[in-house]
From TrEMBL:
<dbReference type="GO" id="GO:0005764">
    <property type="term" value="C:lysosome"/>
</dbReference>
<dbReference type="InterPro" id="IPR031919">
    <property type="entry name" value="Fucosidase_C"/>
</dbReference>
<comment type="function">
    <text>Alpha-L-fucosidase is responsible for hydrolyzing the alpha-1,6-linked fucose joined to the reducing-end N-acetylglucosamine of the carbohydrate moieties of glycoproteins.</text>
</comment>
<feature type="domain" description="Glycoside hydrolase family 29 N-terminal">
    <location>
        <begin position="49"/>
        <end position="413"/>
    </location>
</feature>
<keyword id="KW-0378">Hydrolase</keyword>
<dbReference type="Pfam" id="PF16757">
    <property type="entry name" value="Fucosidase_C"/>
</dbReference>
<keyword id="KW-0732">Signal</keyword>
<dbReference type="InterPro" id="IPR057739">
    <property type="entry name" value="Glyco_hydro_29_N"/>
</dbReference>
<dbReference type="GO" id="GO:0016139">
    <property type="term" value="P:glycoside catabolic process"/>
</dbReference>
<dbReference type="GO" id="GO:0006004">
    <property type="term" value="P:fucose metabolic process"/>
</dbReference>
<feature type="domain" description="Alpha-L-fucosidase C-terminal">
    <location>
        <begin position="445"/>
        <end position="525"/>
    </location>
</feature>
<dbReference type="InterPro" id="IPR017853">
    <property type="entry name" value="GH"/>
</dbReference>
<dbReference type="InterPro" id="IPR000933">
    <property type="entry name" value="Glyco_hydro_29"/>
</dbReference>
<dbReference type="InterPro" id="IPR016286">
    <property type="entry name" value="FUC_metazoa-typ"/>
</dbReference>
<dbReference type="Pfam" id="PF01120">
    <property type="entry name" value="Alpha_L_fucos"/>
</dbReference>
<comment type="similarity">
    <text>Belongs to the glycosyl hydrolase 29 family.</text>
</comment>
<protein>
    <recommendedName>
        <fullName>alpha-L-fucosidase</fullName>
        <ecNumber>3.2.1.51</ecNumber>
    </recommendedName>
</protein>
């Protein structure tokens, strides 16, 4: 496509990158392949390793083999992790982390904001945010200490988001934080710091969505149409699918070359950083991609098993066979106990995953109660934060994390290392099950409990303080066939054991006049027939 020039202001020349929307899929992909060809040798070497090691170990690159996967105990015990969405999109700090997509969607609110703030898309494209992304106040050790103090046991930075800018030191791309912008291996520095604090490292890769993420730039005059930037902006194929529909109905073009590049980039992260967990967003379930997912999963599981416990892959919806990975439910929960370990990921911010100005944040009470509910149903909670482009974490976010950590310091025995009980809980408040419903659950009451177990000990987490001076757990009624007799009750954070009576309508516990803490209250319950 020809690159034309026209004067936008007297004495200035502005490039006019004409629309490439009428190009065919093969032609679009060929432009991208030529742009990334300089790394063919490195890519091919990685793919050779993946092909070999995907067949050397306990797993094979097919779903029947991968269905035998089981999550390691460290992850089942950890329960709470921190997710980090940090990238170029934190520079405009407007709308959401999908700013790079929507700035190229003609007529969208973000497109109008971008043009008004920065100029036409031919004059200022997404690439032009790179020099503005400096991370000048980034202190990975301070981040890691904050995450440790929050009570998290694992940390999952986004190594590359849909925008295609790698936050790690990639040998397959020029468009990385190590080679541009901050000129630092940001993800690598986070990795070293969190491991120094004794935390597990995860890596989130959203690169598969980059296949189509910047499609809007092809439909109008923008820098997405310049072949010089194809290695960064990607194929930008037209999206032939609907976010609200099943991926089986998505017909977006994904070339074998792009899918193989996706495998290679993930394998590079594994080889360089050895993450204990890989988080994928939803689009890995697209039909053209699934065979490559199976190959990478077998490679990653086999490779990680050589070093220690098998790695973890978080996947959404039905993107992978249900027992071949750990199910992740975005901004949502379940209504009952799931036999397999699962996870919910949600953001401490309400409007965006990445940093934006004037965002609002969830309260520590909301996070603690969600954690209790998720853990009672055999899940983990991965809580996201969005740092600023300068590398600082907003003070309100830091305070939420510290408040959650203070609660866990007192009540962590009811969370870490626990397993579900026969029932997840009781009470009138019903959780809205499914993705994107986590803020729709009504406020919990003192009649709402969540149960966890550790060995012979039962923990009952009361979601609000009982104002009547008595907590009643109806599930522990003495009138149920096979009911176990309670012989001890203590309240974590309180100095003495509590008095109680087990009646036909439940376990009645006399509570102190003042609550020993905030947000949720944990009773440690022992049974007369417990084996010691």
């Amino acid at each position: 496509m020809a690159l034309l020039f026209s004067s936008s202001l007297p004495g200035q020349v502005a490039p006019q990158y004409l629309s490439t929307a009428k190009q065919g899929a093969a032609q679009i992909d060929e432009t991208w392949q030529k742009a990334v060809a300089k790394y063919d040798k490195q890519r091919d070497a990685l793919l050779t390793t993946v092909e070999r090691e995907s067949k050397e170990g306990p797993f094979q690159p097919d779903w029947q083999s991968l269905a035998n996967y089981q999550a390691p105990d460290w992850y089942r015990d950890a329960k709470f992790g921190i997710f980090i969405h940090w990238g170029l999109y934190s520079v405009p700090a407007y709308g959401s982390e999908w700013y790079p997509r929507e700035m190229y969607l003609e007529g969208s609110s973000i497109n109008r904001h971008h043009v008004a703030t920065y100029g036409l898309l031919t004059q200022f494209g997404y690439k032009d945010f790179i020099p503005m992304f400096k991370a000048e106040h980034f202190d990975p050790q301070a981040w890691a200490k904050l995450f440790k103090d929050s009570g998290a046991r694992y940390v999952v930075p986004v190594f590359e988001h849909h925008d295609g800018f790698a936050m790690y030191d990639s040998d397959l791309s020029d468009w990385t934080a190590k080679k541009m912008g901050p000129h630092r291996d940001l993800a690598g520095e986070i990795a070293m710091a969190v491991r120094a604090e004794g935390l597990h490292l995860g890596a989130s890769s959203h690169r598969i969505e980059h296949d189509w993420f910047l499609e809007g730039g092809r439909k109008q005059d923008s820098d997405v149409n310049d072949p010089k930037y194809a290695a960064f902006y990607g194929p930008a194929h037209p999206r032939l699918g609907d976010d609200g529909a099943a991926l089986a109905e998505d017909w977006t073009y994904v070339s074998p070359a792009y899918a193989k590049d996706w495998v290679a980039r993930n394998a590079e992260i594994v080889q360089k950083y050895h993450p204990d967990l890989i988080f994928f967003d939803w689009w890995i379930g697209q039909p053209s991609v699934r065979p490559y997912v199976a190959e990478f999963a077998a490679y990653y599981y086999n490779e990680s098993s050589k070093r220690g416990p098998v790695g973890i892959i978080n996947s959404k919806l039905v993107d992978m066979q249900k027992t071949s990975a750990v199910l992740d439910i975005e901004r949502g929960q379940l209504s009952s106990i799931l036999p397999e370990t699962w996870q919910t990921d949600t953001s401490v911010s309400n409007k965006s995953w990445g940093y934006i100005e004037n965002d609002t944040f969830k309260t520590p009470e909301f996070i603690v109660q969600q954690l209790a509910d998720v853990v009672s149903k055999n899940g983990n909670l991965l809580l996201n934060i969005g740092p600023r482009s300068d590398g600082t974490i907003p003070q309100p976010v830091q305070q939420v994390l510290l408040d959650v950590g203070a609660w866990l310091k007192v009540n962590g025995n009811a969370i870490y290392g626990t397993r579900p009980w026969t029932s997840f809980g009781e009470g009138p408040t019903k959780v809205e099950a499914g993705s994107f419903h986590d803020t729709q659950t009504k406020p919990y009451t003192a009649q709402d409990f969540r149960f966890t177990t550790n060995g012979e000990t039962l923990y009952a987490i009361e979601m609000a303080w009982p104002k009547e001076g008595e907590a009643v757990i109806h599930t522990l009624s003495s009138d149920v066939v096979g009911a176990r007799k309670v012989n001890s009750v203590s309240l974590l954070g309180a100095p003495a054991e509590l008095t109680f009576t087990q009646r036909t309508d439940g376990l009645h516990i006399k509570v102190p006049a003042e609550a020993p803490g905030e947000y949720a209250y944990v009773y440690r319950i022992g049974f007369e027939d417990a084996k010691h």
